[in-house]
Amino acid sequence: MIEMKGVNKWFGEFQVLKNIDLTVALGEKIVICGPSGSGKSTLVRLINNLETHQKGRIVVDGIELGEDLKAIEAVRREVGMVFQQFNLFPHLSVLENLTLAPIWVRRMPKKDAEELAMQLLNRVRIAEQAAKFPAQLSGGQQQRVAIARALAMRPKVMLFDEPTSALDPEMIKEVLDVMVELAQEGMTMLVVTHEMGFARTVADRVCFMDEGEIVETGKPKEFFAAPKTERAKLFLSQILGH
Amino acid sequence: MSPARPAFRSSPVRWLRENLFYNVPSAIVTLLLAYVAWSALAPFIEWAFVNAIWQAPDSKGCREAKGIGACWAMITEKHRFILFGTYPFEQHWRPGLCILLLLALYVVSAMRRFWRPALALVWLAGLALIGVLMWGGIFGLAYVENERWGGLMLTLLLATFGIAFAFPLSILLALGRRSDMPAVRILSVGYIELIRGVPLISLLFMASVMLPLFLPEGVSVNKLLRAQIAIVLFAAAYLAEVVRGGLQAVPQGQYEAADAMGLSYWRKTLLIVLPQALRVAIPPLVNTFIGLFKDTSLVVIIGLFDLLTSIKVALGEPAWNGFGVEAYIFASLVYFTFCYAMSQYSQNLERELARGKAHYLREN
Question: Searching chain A, which residue's CA lies closest to the CA of residue B257?
Answer without folding.
Answer: A87
